[in-house]
Automatic annotation (TrEMBL):
It is an enzyme of class 2 (transferase). Its cofactor is Mg(2+). It comes from Pseudoalteromonas luteoviolacea DSM 6061. This is diguanylate cyclase. SUPFAM superfamilies: Nucleotide cyclase. GO terms for molecular function: diguanylate cyclase activity. Its EC number is 2.7.7.65. GO terms for biological process: cell adhesion involved in single-species biofilm formation; negative regulation of bacterial-type flagellum-dependent cell motility.
Length: 301
């Protein structure tokens, strides 16, 4: 199957072929999730971006229409249920037949993007699955992905955090796998609720989760992750009542291999487990001795 980037490039190609010299702007929800706001995917050279808020308001009002007619533009709307997932603004009047053709082709690619998005989801938790993880890290480190930038002051860096539920085996042993699955679902929900739409939350393994997110520095990251740790620790789970999570994190370095990166976060997580669980550990704080020690004991995971 093609990647999202291939499909985005195909959309741009179609617009160039079918609408040469016509100003266009294509907007999409990056992971096709209803929680996200639309981001600019492509803008033809001649165009200034249209007023996206105005277009969104019209698309939301005129729910049954796929093509919105303006005085000097068209706007093709991509929808999922009632949510607007994408907009193609065409900045001049073109023959209606061509507008329908473009709308049809854009929909074909949008459906392919949706199929791809579904293949990336873990069925139990609805988080991104392990298979998607490597692709996302590579997209982030190479800058190739359709990554939403946040308008905020200061340079922000990408971090990887690994989360592991403490003594999860005891939950399964004491309450059974159905309750165990419910716990996984609830922890996944808390992770989703405590990160931003532009962050990436994965089910990385059985009871292990991974999050790729941005922050200004390690101190801010530590504070953010500790808040998430506390949210889970204070949550009352049905039957199980309380449980905790351990977290290890590391900075994404663009020369790093994905496997090295995961190894670093894993070492930090290992350290958190080894030193009492229910805590957050920064890989950078481990030092060489910490790494060497953990590497010799790694079979504990
Ligand atoms: N219910 C449920 N359990 C799972 C799933 N995937 C893995 N597990 C269980 O998760 C448990 C993980 O146990 P361990 O790796 O020993 O770790 P732990 O008990 O959490 O202990 P620490 O990580 O050392 O705190 C095992 O009992 C697995 O069977 C799943 O999808 N559903």
């Amino acid at each position: 199957m093609r990647s999202e980037n291939d499909l985005y490039k195909r959309i741009e190609h179609i617009l160039c072929e079918l609408l040469p010299d016509v100003p266009t702007a294509m907007y999409l929800a990056p992971s096709l999730s209803e929680k996200e706001s639309l981001k600019l995917l492509s803008l033809s050279s001649a165009a200034n971006p249209p007023d996206i808020n105005y277009l969104m308001a019209r698309a939301e009002t005129l729910k049954s229409q796929q093509i919105l007619h303006g005085d000097n533009h068209y706007c093709i709307v991509l929808r999922k249920n009632k949510a607007v997932m994408g907009l193609l603004w065409i900045g001049e009047k073109i023959p209606m037949s061509r507008c329908y053709l473009v709308g049809h082709l854009i929909n074909v690619f949008y459906n392919q993007l949706n199929t791809l998005a579904l293949s990336r989801i873990d069925p139990l938790t609805q988080l991104l699955n392990r298979q998607t993880f490597d692709d996302k890290v590579i997209e982030i480190t190479t800058g190739e992905g359709f990554i939403a930038e946040r308008e905020q002051q200061g340079v922000r860096h990408w971090y990887l955090a690994l989360f592991d539920i403490d003594h999860f085996k005891v939950v399964n042993d004491n309450y059974g796998h159905v309750i165990g699955d419910e716990v996984l679902l609830l922890v996944a929900q808390q992770l989703k609720d405590n990160f931003r739409a532009e962050d990436f939350v994965f089910r990385y393994g059985g009871e292990e989760f991974a999050v790729l997110f941005q922050s200004h520095d390690s101190n801010e990251t530590l504070r953010l992750l500790d808040r998430v740790r506390a949210v889970v620790a204070n949550y009352v789970f049905p039957q199980v009542n309380h449980l905790t999570i351990s977290i290890g994190f590391t900075l994404l370095d663009d020369i790093c291999q994905v496997s090295e990166l995961v190894h670093e976060a894993d070492l930090a997580l290992y350290h958190a487990k080894k030193h009492g669980r229910n805590r957050v550990v920064d890989f950078d704080e481990l030092g060489i001795a910490g790494q060497a020690k953990a590497e010799t004991d790694i079979e504990l995971f």
